[in-house]
Amino acid sequence: MTRAIDIAQVSYEAPDLALMERFLTDFGLSRIAHEKDALYMRGAGRQHHLHVTRRAAQARFVGASFEMSDEADLDALAALPGSSPVMESDEPGGGLVVRMTMPDGFEIRAVYGRAGAEPMPVKAPNHFNDGVFKRRIGSTVRTQRAPCQALRLGHVVLHVSDHDASVRWLQQRFDLLPSDHFLPPGQDGPVIGTFLRFNRGADCVDHHCMLVLQSNKVGVHHCSFEVQDVDAVMGAHDFLTAQGYQLDCGVGRHLLGSQIFDYWKDPFGFRVEHYTDGDVVDASHRPGTFNGTACETTQWGMEPPPEFFE
Ligand SMILES: [Fe+2]
Question: Domain 4-115+150-309 is classified in which CATH homologous superfamily?
């Protein structure tokens, strides 16, 4: 079984790379490379880049890339129908890549051997003094309304025309495990959404690296970047508000995955999320099911607007 160990990047097309760079910089990413027709933005962590925008007349979500555990995985993936051969990546950081096309046309790339980025110094978390457990002794919290650091790409959410086919396609290639299933409100089936996570055995991973949702509106729903703590989320929220960016939904806490979330729209209308304090589980976690209403997916905070669920 071929196995992915991390989500490496999301890729888009857009007509104005400078506009995208300004937004993503304010959102907490940093430019690592800028070619004439492509922008590469990194986070603070080890992945060479996390967000790619290629210049094109129309804005479009292209797809996502997964980092594989073994070079031999690329050979196995290349042998599957519809896959490209193993190729040298044409992106900064290099490495090897296999290009595949998911049902509904999303480009999914498996990468191996890409150069890492030198991790950036990261602001330490502000320790939280719980009611009964005090971790911050004799020190203060001092935080700012300022861009936060996007530490890493956490997940991407796709709307697909055939949930079962898309989940099967992803699981067969990347050994992803289901963490939770969505059912229609009040019903016992069918499954209309699946949260998928990496299989890293006894090591804990995020509750999901991908969510696949049945929908009439095929496309990306959002991509999401982890930030350090709730002060980072809130300071960035105030900063992005002051810059005049379009808030989509936040701040709040999700039910499935438990993340504290904050959703914004980039200049081309794509939804991007900051999150912190998400659930982590190992490979022994068994999926649950949820058949509540859309509103019940938010535990507190701003409830998403109706179009969030379209
Ligand atoms: Fe999310």
Answer: 2,3-Dihydroxybiphenyl 1,2-Dioxygenase, domain 1 (3.10.180.10)
Question: CB-based contacts of 160: which residues, under 8 Å, 6+ apart?
Answer: 102, 103, 104, 166, 212, 213, 214, 215, 218
Per the structure block, which two tokens stand in for 238? 């105030």
> Which residue is listed with tokens 């068994």?
286
- Name which of 190, 168, 186 is nearest 178 in CA terms: 168
- Domain parsing of the chain, residue ranges: 4-115+150-309
Question: What is the 221 CA–ligand 1 centroid distance (Å)?
Answer: 9
**198 close to 236: Cβ distance less than 8 angstroms:** no
Q: What's the 305 CA to ligand 1 centre distance in angstroms? A: 15
What confidence tens digit (pLDDT) does each residue in 261-285 have?
Answer: 999 999 999 999 999 999 999 999 9
pLDDT-based confidence at 306, cuts 50/70/90? confident
Q: Please list, in sequence order, all residues whose beta carbon lies within 8 angstroms of the beta carbon of residue 238, skipping any fewer than 6 positions away.
A: 145
Strand, coil or helix: 76:
helix
* CA of residue 88 to ligand 1 center, whole Å: 31
pLDDT of 310 reads: 80
Taking the whole predicted model, whether its pTM rises above 0.85 is answered as yes
- Length of the chain, in residues: 310
What's 81's DSSP letter? Answer: T
Ligand 1 mean position, distance from CA 64 (Å): 15
